[in-house]
Amino acid sequence: MNRLTTTAIATLMALGLAPAAQAEIKIGATLSATGPASFLGDPEAKTLEMLVEEVNAAGGINGEMLELVMYDDGGDPNKARTFATRLVEDDEVVAIIGGTTTGATMSIIPVAEDAEIPFISLAGAVDIIDPVKAWVFKTPHTDRMACQKIFEDMQKRGVTKIGMISGTDGFGASMQAQCKGVVADYGIEIVADETYDPKDADMTPQLTNIKNTAGIQAVLNPGFGQGPSIVTRNYKQLAVGLPLYQSHGVASKGFIDLAGVEAAEGVRLPAAALLVADILPDSDPQKAVVTAYRDGFEKKTGTPVSTFGGHAYDAFMILKGALEKAGAEPAAIRDAIEGTTGYVGTGGIVNMTAEDHLGLDLTAFKMLEIKNGDWTIVE
């Protein structure tokens, strides 16, 4: 069963269908709740369900109930496009949240643009919002921003030559290209450049090539899914002995569990404040938001919070604010989303404009290091 529907009176995932509640505002989602990207999409789906329930229990939006019509695309871009079309044409939603992966997002964009329905993506590639598309927004930090944050940290450590091993999936390939585009700005040279297929079970040959390249001082792995965990394990097995950086695409406890605590020790990556809620200073404006979301999510689901669920939280809250301000007409919703300013979310403080449909800068990223199986803040 591909259709998942959340209403004011029932939440249905994967199992069966039930009559819809008397909801008055329909919002749509297509997410990778199952499949290889489920570690991203599952917390996103659970977050949206939780938030819709909370809003409806509190009386809805301006007195109107919400209905969330949600499909599981399994990470398949073709299914994501089909479901986006169904959301627009059959379900008549006023906005769409989703696109767990970059590939799925890119397939949804033309549907949303053609139908003139606001779409808030949960994927990382900068190409989603650069160049700006009138009806498309996103909440995660971009891959270009991740490259810049990582290179800032390398620069502080005196690193000038690096090796890079990238996944060939949409996210990995995009981040690889973005890193190559900005690396020279930090006086850093990529002297070894390897890739792997997301389905590969061993990256030892590529890492051996990197290890044997003279002058390398650190290694960067753009990618998401199980690939970076395998890279991290192989990296430890080969005793490369240099700093290893991962992307924000693996910013969850699941990455540490898959890689293994010993192998993950010392790995650095940029991520949102959500992962380090407890150790944020009380003066940090995000602390109350991320702590409340984390506590609510973990109580509701019995599973650890992740930054990916946080992307869905921010998307929903931005959409909620737009609905409260502008009502349920798609064009008015679009304008209100674009006018979002000062929104304190799990990913940072969002200030969107007509020229910026993300609204975050590098200060929204924390540089984290894994120590003893947990996250610590480098800065």
TrEMBL record:
GO biological process: one example: amino acid transport
**Cleavable signal peptide:** 1-23
Gene3D superfamilies according to UniProt: 3.40.50.2300
Coiled-coil residues are none
Alphabetical list of Pfam families matching this protein = Peripla_BP_6
Domain Leucine-binding protein, by residue range, is 24-358
The UniProt keywords, alphabetically, are: Amino-acid transport, Signal, Transport
Q: Which family is this sequence assigned to?
A: Belongs to the leucine-binding protein family.
What the entry lists under PANTHER family is as follows: BLR7848 PROTEIN, LEUCINE-SPECIFIC-BINDING PROTEIN
The protein here is known as ABC transporter substrate-binding protein
Report the source organism.
Answer: Gemmobacter lutimaris
